[in-house]
Write a structure and sequence with these properties.
370 residues; alpha/beta; Rossmann fold; 44% helix; seven-stranded parallel sheet; 13 strands; globular; six-stranded parallel sheet; 2 domains
Length: 370
């Protein structure tokens, strides 16, 4: 069997999609040693550095950059037609839009969410992205998505599509307990408060940071002081968050960090008193797994995928109501029997998201489709 993978969307920037790719596809390729893999990488990033000991994978550098939708499309239009003619793939999988169809075998697309379709916007750009995503989903021979909730959402708009669920995963070893000395050094380095609430995720509108800031403001105005640390790289929304913090006079109570290493983020999970994820839309939610692996107390939005990941075992808040968010913070920090039961139960949940286990499911899917 011969499998091609369009991985031109990945670069040095950390992301859940990249974490998923490295976590699942390395053990997958290693185990499928009877299969030949060809991975196409972006012009500005070398993915092969993560697969150096595998003999059944070939990397091809393309002229396609990892970012810039228009440039990617135009360069891809020229490149893919000739490149794929030379191959005879049984399967060809891609992770970005628009879909690239292989002339042979089946073409698969992995979709983390369909917010370009389900979150209604009326700008020309949003309408165009919606058309591209719709066309790509309908053109694929098979769709992989990252949660049962997202599968249901896709089927809501496209009931006849062939969709499988392959969860995102985590390597719990990356979140092993750090020493007191290591944590104190990190705390001093980043000038973290003695006690704080943590939120992790790219800084963009759907992460709902403004309502979380409102909740911190509401608590402060009611003489309940909580410090908030937001960790995430800017997705063209950092300025909105910074300005809103200033508007609410919360500069001394909220800190925003970008560009941190994975090791630093792991330490911050262990230092925080509570992890909160206020998103109003997600396809999955990898930080929830990270918080569980770090044995951190968790507060979550009441959206279907968060209930799915946590087996419906927590108290959830309305992400559109800042007072409900505030009350949930207070409630979550008061450890009751329900919260303690979840802290004990999370070890069982984490087992579902082990990369080795997930890669076996991917292998089964690949073999069944070929």
């Amino acid at each position: 069997m011969k499998i091609g993978i369009n991985a031109t969307c990945f670069n040095k920037r950390p992301s859940g999609a990249k974490q998923r790719f490295l976590g699942i596809y390395y053990p997958l390729i290693k185990r499928m040693n009877d299969t030949s893999f060809v991975i196409y990488q972006a012009s500005d990033y070398n993915l092969s550095q993560y697969f150096t000991d595998l003999t059944n994978v070939t990397f091809r550098k393309t002229p396609i950059p990892s970012s810039g939708r228009l440039v990617k499309f135009l360069r891809g239009k020229i490149y893919w037609k000739n490149a794929l003619k030379k191959e005879n793939f049984d399967l060809f999988e891609g992770f970005n839009l628009p879909i690239v169809k292989a002339p042979t075998g089946k073409t698969i697309i992995t979709v983390h969410d369909i917010r370009d379709i389900s979150i209604s916007k009326k700008s020309f750009k949003s309408i165009f992205y919606k058309l591209v995503m719709t066309s790509s989903l309908k053109s694929a021979d098979h769709i992989i998505t990252v949660s049962k909730s997202m599968k249901e959402e896709i089927r809501k708009y496209f009931p006849n599509l062939d969709v499988s669920v392959i969860y995102n995963g985590i390597n719990p070893e990356n979140f092993k307990e750090k020493s007191t000395t290591e944590l104190l050094q990190l705390k001093r380095k980043l000038k973290l408060p003695d006690s704080f609430i943590l939120s992790v995720g790219h800084i963009e509108k759907r992460k709902n940071y403004l309502n979380l800031i409102d909740a911190i403001s509401y608590l402060k105005n009611n003489n309940k002081i909580y410090y908030l640390v937001i960790v995430g790289n800017d997705n063209n929304y950092r300025r909105n968050v910074d300005e809103y913090i200033k508007t609410k006079n919360l500069d001394d109570y909220i800190s925003v960090y970008s560009g941190l290493s994975d090791d630093e983020i792991s330490g911050i999970y262990q230092l925080c008193k509570l992890f909160i994820f206020p998103s109003y839309y997600e396809g999955f939610g990898i930080p929830i797994l990270e918080a569980m692996a770090s044995n951190t107390i968790i507060s979550l939005s009441n959206i279907p995928v968060f209930r799915e990941i946590t087996h419906n075992k927590l108290n959830y808040f309305n992400p559109n109501n800042s007072i409900d968010i505030a009350n949930n913070i207070i409630q979550s920090l008061t450890i009751n029997k329900e919260e303690q039961d979840f802290l004990n139960y999370r070890k069982e949940i984490i087992k579902e998201f082990d990369f080795a286990k997930i890669s076996k499911k991917m292998e089964y899917l690949y073999r069944s489709l070929a």
